[in-house]
Amino acid sequence: MPRRSWTPPFPLDLGAVLGTLRRGPGDPSFSTEGGVWFAANTPCGPGTLRVRRTDAVEAEAWGEGGQWLLDGLPALLGADDPVDEFVAHHPVIAEARRQRPGLRLGATGRVWDLLFASILEQKVTGKEAFRTWRELGRRFGEPAPGPLALKVPPTPGRLLSLQDWEWHQCGLDGARRRTLINAAQVAHRLEKAAEMRSRELLEKVPGIGVWTSAEVAQRSWGDPDAVSVGDYHVAKNVTWALTGTPGDDDAMMALLEPYKPQRHRAVMYLEAAGMRRPRRAPRFSPRDYRKL
Question: What three-state secondary structure class fits 196?
Answer without folding.
Answer: helix
